[in-house]
Amino acid sequence: MRYLRAMSDGAGLVNPLTNAIRNSYAAAFVIGVAEDYMPMLGTQIGRINGVYIAPSAEG
After folding, report:
1. Within 13 Å of residue 7, how many CA atoms lie on the same side as its CB?
2. What angle separates helix 2-10 from helix 16-30, to the nearest 10 degrees?
3. Rounded CA gap, 20 and 34, in Å?
4. What is the Cα gyration radius of the chain?
5. CB of 16 within 8 A of CB of 1?
6. Could you tell me the end-to-end alpha-carbon distance of the chain, in angstroms, rounded to an integer?
């Protein structure tokens, strides 16, 4: 995140992505899943919002 922020700051761009990532990690920490792997972050954010992602039968 620091790299992304430094890059956007250096280019003079507004970067809402770093705030979104930081808030997502904070939410994961609050619900006790901060130690999960990065690919699970979307699943946990979905869970917070009442969306449950199940594996497909097609696998």
Report:
1. 7
2. 160
3. 15
4. 15
5. no
6. 32
Q: Which two tokens stand for residue 7?
A: 């890059």
CA distance 49 to 47: 5
Residues in the chain: 59
* pTM: predicted TM-score of the whole model, two decimal places: 0.51
Q: Which residue has the tokens 């009442």?
A: 50
pLDDT tens-digit map of 28-55: 888 887 777 667 777 877 887 888 877 7
DSSP string, 1-59: -HHHHHHHHHTT---HHHHHHHHHHHHHHHTT-TTS-GGGHHHHHHHHTT------TT-
